[in-house]
């Protein structure tokens, strides 16, 4: 009866849109033409009016094993009936310990310690704070400068926003963190348009870190944070050799390297993490999204043994890191994550982007001759199609493609600016890839 009451309320939602101030949304426009999803299973959403929509973006880059997975549903249901909440400040419960060990086992050496958060934004702010406190613990407390990159997206906390490099996410919010600087971004359509996989040109852009070292001195720099592949700014790929060079420059100057793998983690580009796919090991990895298959909010920061151990040198009775969230290691999130890892392992989903990546690449590049297409980028199970902006109305062409896909083609995609981004659930097969690009091609063709 309780379930029925909530269902009745959900049915009335289309007439009750006013109070919810939606995130990253043109609220007034949305509330005139809403797009509401009611349920989901495997590769599809069902809308409130009963249409089946193919999910081309794994929700929001997070449902890597697809939707409605039985094992996760059962694990979370069992957990909430057993232990709904337990504190993890000077207390504990079994699951986060077990989960951290399971995560450490799939992480690259030597990133064998895990700090839990509730989101990508919190993971980023956590990693930045650990970097600062790490240097201080080692007697290098003057290393306070944080380096991000243009076009970077690291969530919306003050730390992540400050190291981020997307102008609309920054310009409204004042001066932000002091002492932050940015590397140049690596998008270079003039040299790399229609590259298949990693672009050939641009490894030398990593030398931009040397420029910042010359400007600020390495002794003031705590850490560099980059997305191995950036998603939010419209899928920007690392040129061949770029990440390796960045690692070398960080090592030379004692600067920590943080990979923000909130979208690339948990199989998106093949292997568990992009760090493994690229063969470059950072000092910390920030994750969220795919950790629980998007089912319960959770993030995890992977920390190297050396960083972790630097915090364990003080008196044993003193708290080693004055940081944490009420919900760090929340029982429901841990249960969801454990079931998610089992699902990934059982279905070998970390291999999927490697197995089907060539077909994905062929299929997306078949769209290159469509009207307005100025670049196509792909890596792992990520794809981007960049459209020429309309005169004076940047972003509107891609947004029209997005709404046409959703309303007329039963396909969910995502756009930022004039880039169409794709990141499907890793459970897809070749027929889904055919449907995604077939429907998207129609939508692009039909959009002026
Ligand atoms: N970092 C990266 C690379 C992301 O792509 C995102 C979200 O898209 C975040 C951080 C922020 O994650 P959240 O929205 O869970 O705070």
TrEMBL record:
Cofactor(s) annotated in UniProt: pyridoxal 5'-phosphate
Enzyme class: transferase
Sorted UniProt keywords: Aminotransferase, Pyridoxal phosphate, Pyruvate, Transferase
Gene3D superfamilies documented for this protein: Aspartate Aminotransferase, domain 1, Type I PLP-dependent aspartate aminotransferase-like (Major domain)
Name of one Pfam family that matches: Aminotran_3
One GO BP: biotin biosynthetic process
Top-level division of the source organism's lineage: Bacteria
Signal peptide boundaries: none
E.C. designation(s): 2.6.1.18
InterPro entries assigned to the protein according to its UniProt record, in alphabetical order: Aminotrans_3, Aminotrans_3_PPA_site, PyrdxlP-dep_Trfase, PyrdxlP-dep_Trfase_major, PyrdxlP-dep_Trfase_small
One Gene Ontology term of the molecular function aspect: pyridoxal phosphate binding
Family membership: Belongs to the class-III pyridoxal-phosphate-dependent aminotransferase family.
Protein name: Omega amino acid--pyruvate aminotransferase
